[in-house]
């Protein structure tokens, strides 16, 4: 598999997992919503953690990315509910 395709597939899979975990915490759901929320949450969580200088430090890059994405997805869902 070409690296660009692999990166896109990884981002979607991480987004699905993060979106699902966020829905467990704050409710809501559906496969498409999980993916969209998780992918947007990846960007929001990555920005938030970098801006604040936070580190998770688990030692497993995949698990860290899923946690950061999940936190970002939770922020996205709560912000959307606040605006709605």
Quick tags:
84 residues, mainly alpha
Describe the structure concisely for a colleague.
It contains three helices and no strands.
Describe the structure.
The protein has one domain. The longest helix has 24 residues, at 3-26. The mean pLDDT is 89. Helix content is 82%, strand content 0%. It is globular. The chain is mostly helical.
Low-confidence stretches: none
| Count of discrete domains | 1
How many helices? The count is 3
Q: Give the averaged pLDDT, no decimals.
A: 89
Radius of gyration: 13 Å
Helix-strand makeup class: mainly alpha
In percent, how much strand structure appears in the residues? under 5%
Distance between the termini: 41 Å
Order of helices and strands: HHH
Largest sheet: none
Helical fraction equals over 70%
What is the overall silhouette?
globular
Number of E strands:
0
Sequence-ordered SSE layout with sheet pairings:
Elements: H1 3-26, H2 31-52, H3 61-83
Helix pairs in contact: 1-2, 1-3, 2-3
């Amino acid at each position: 598999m070409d690296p660009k395709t692999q990166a896109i597939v990884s981002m979607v899979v991480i987004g699905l997992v993060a979106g699902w975990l966020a829905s467990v915490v704050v409710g809501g759901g559906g496969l498409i919503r999980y993916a969209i929320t998780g992918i947007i949450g990846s960007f929001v969580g990555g920005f938030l953690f970098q801006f604040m200088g936070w580190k998770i430090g688990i030692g497993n890059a995949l698990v860290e990315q899923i946690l950061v994405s999940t936190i970002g997805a939770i922020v996205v869902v709560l912000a959307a509910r606040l605006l709605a």
